[in-house]
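Task card 7
Instruction: Convert sequence to structure tokens.
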Amino acid sequence: MSFKNVVQLGVIADGETDNIETLDQIISEAESGDTLYFPTGNYYVSKNLTLDKMLHLVGVKPHYQTGDLVDGTVIRGGGIFLVGGSTGTTVTGIGVVNNPDFTNCFDVRGSLSSISFKNCVAIPVQHGFLIESYDGEVSNTLVDSCESHDGIHGFISKALRTTFVNCLAMGMSNLGFGIISDNIPAKNSIGMAIDNKLIGCRAVNVHGDGFMQYRRNYYEDNEGAVICNANQFIGCSGYNCTHSLTLGENVGNTGWGKYHAYAVSNTLVAGFTEYGGPVRFLYTTNLTIAGLFIRNEAVAKQDEVDSNIGMVASGVSGANLGEFNDVLTLANGVNPSVGFGRTFRTANDSATVITDFQNPINGQIYTIIVADVYTSIEPSATIKLSGSSVRGIGSSVTLRYQNGQYTEIGRSLSKDWGTQFHATEEYLELGDSGLVDLLQASTDNPSATTILHPELHDASLTIINRSTNGAITPPDFNRDQFVVPDDLPTDVLPWGQARITDWKYVSALGKYILSGWRITKYA
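Output:
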């Protein structure tokens, strides 16, 4: 490995002399691992400079000034293209300004990995930095403290494990940063964005999306062929962009028949700041937001156009996070989805018993408000209620979902619907009810009425004893729980009559005392 000054090898840094043949010759004769040093100056090339071996290109970082690069190492005309064989190449402190006949300033393609750009600056026609896997898998590219100005796209990754850190995209006409999965060249030529990280990057004055992530198939409706998964936006910011951050495209988007769009999955947005240009979450699954400051109301919905199933959000400040924190209407029917939002209201128009929910997120808390007379939320194998079913307009229940089960952590009831038991039951679990409808058949051998944990329930309790068929003798009360007066009627009740007793729990006694009774007709 050796250090070579390209000017000493015949390259002319006057911005006019075409250096492409000289540089191609230098690259051809260089050994893998050599360092090529470009002193301050302007180096014109009439073609893209292509590297197919591991080299280290070093220059002096230029500065952006009113549409140009000055005071450093600047390559003008074509860009720097890294292709198969250049694994391990590093490019440091070099600027590229494309002439109109060219497209990209820094381009990585082919089967290669471990490429590094540091302190590089681009003024592209199209892409400042394009990392793509159409022609082979590109992985583990690092773009550190680089800038892109004034082109169409700043920093684009269609590859595995690309990291953009402390980079700036300014004045781009479309995308500042793009994490993209698609197959534009051919059906099986796929650029997949997987496990990419954008850390501390800034998009400024972008006339489009400061940061964008999407997933498209241009040849068939097959989302499994194109993956966009596990990408992260950490500590990034958008300033004065049309949209600071956009994740996914609308449900069913076909790009005027050119492609099919799908959800981006398992994305992390952490510590993102929007200084102008709303944030949009259009089509995602399992999106995690951990820290988000927004000046404008974000777009975040769950309907026929936008879908964000599995979205989790914490640490959001500034404006509203779209509809995510609203009280949302559950879809009609049993087992509705709770995959977007945290507070829901029912809106069924026919008898509906809910015993499960779809698309829950582990560890999340959901509140369900019953807003119709038809819905009942019932205990089941997956819903563990502390008391009886939840129903009645205005009633609500708060559930925590953990490892396949919803566990009640709180509720409110607008009405006491009562709890119905059979008189043969050994213990009565009241839940939140203060009314017990105790049924008994003439052939039953009833148990003494015993309340499970009476000290945990309301002080007032009403017990109705009535027959389901024939005459009955009401059961006795557990004398360890009830102070039963001698004049309480225990006469036989014919079918159609009920004995109603009202009780008050006295904590000092640890027992119920009778506050009143009556015999009444119920049929």
